[in-house]
Structure formats: structure tokens, C-alpha cells
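Board notes (copied after class):
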Amino acid sequence: MLLKIVLSSCLILLFLLGSGEAQAGELAERLAKFPQWEKLTSVKPAEGDLVYPDWMTGTWKVTSTLVDLAAPLAPDIITPGFEGNRSQLNQPVSFLVRFVKVKQQNSGLKFIPKIDKQSQILVADRVFNSLNLSRAYLGNEAILAVKLDPESPNRQITFFRGERQLVSLVTARATENTPDCQFITTEVFQQYFKGGSRAYFNTVESTTAYHLLSKSNPKIEADQITAVYLSPQDPDYFTADSRPVALYRYRLEFFHLT
């Protein structure tokens, strides 16, 4: 049962909260084509951390609402937990996230209060964000800890009760910026769940369009689509033929706290 829960939307979003630049407008067009998706091909290998625009600085209260979901290859292929996720439709979930300034040459979330601003970049506090997000969905007792690889901001491990672990590795990404304060990003990562009756692998792509609505009283809205692809270890991998087997669409609202 826990395996189905872990593979649900909450942990697919662990890296929600750099940089290869996608071809102009490709990510925006991709969002508009939901749910007619194929695997994204223009992403580049992930090097360093994902860099966010300065207007996302600080701590935010986020309300996330699942507004749509699709299983393009059903009934032949349906991922574990997909049907159970229907109960989350239109059910808002709130949690805190934050984006912090770090040294450009080392995005390991080392705070630097006194340093030339030219050498700073803004990144997500992945441990803080992932822990708050997963506990908001699964409860405080279900999650023991989230740890980031000290050698790479793109690899993290979530530890569950019962000696279960979810290892997530960002492998590729792309970003777009628009003049109207919209920032669009895609991250592709591999998930490996271990500790249950059997190990489970898959590939996840999360594409998010952040839009700054107000600077005086900062508020951000975002449209996020998460696509789940089968890993080569899955017996249905070649049947899926690089198409997503599950799609989830979220509406995100960010309210600035500090």
C-alpha cells in the first residue's frame, strides 16, 4: 500500500521546488498541449542547480491543487496509485517552500549574508521544500528525513518509516523566460523506490510555468504538469514507446511570507 502512496503525485513533485535554455516557446507550447504529450527531447544534462529568477526570493506559503489527471495508455498501462489519486482532485494542500541565495560556484545551500551579489544565484531549498511537501501529503510521522547529496544538488534521498527509501536524481532540465515575469522550467529525474516487496523505477518530468502577479504584495501563480514514464526495467517499457503513462496537472498559488 505504501508503494502506491509513494508513487502518487506528492512525491512525483519532490523536486518542485542552470540551466539549459529550451528553444524559444517550446515549454509554453508543451503546457498548452496537455494531455497530448510525448517525451521531451530538447532538455540538456543537468549541471549544477536550477537557477530561479530573483522575484522568487524568500519563504512562501504554497497551496497546491490537483486539477486534472490522465492515463494516456489506459486501460493497457496504468501506474500504481493512479486511480487512488482521483480522490485528490480539487483538494488543496498547503505547505511552505523557500528559495535562497547561494554561492554561484557551489549551490549546496550555504547561506552567504555578506558577499558580492554578482556571485550569488537563487535556488530552491530542496530539503526544506521536499520535507514540507511530502509531510503535507503523507503526514509528519511517515517521513523520517530528506537528505541532499553533498556532492550534487541534483540527487536526494527521502527516508520513510519501515526502512523504505526514495532516491531521486535530476538528469536533465530546460528553462524559458518571458518579458511578462513568467519563468518556465522542466526537470527530468529518475526515481528509485526501494525497501518494499520489490524495487520500483520510473522517470518523471515536471514542467512548471511560474507567473509573478504582483510585486508590491508578492504573489505567484503556477501551472504545473507532471508526466510519469516507464523505466527500461519495466516489462511494458517498449509498449509505452516513450509516451507518458500518467499525467497530473496542478494549480499552484504562492503567497510571500518573508
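Comment from the instructor: The helical segments are 2-6, 9-12, 26-32, 126-138, 237-240. The mean pLDDT is 84.
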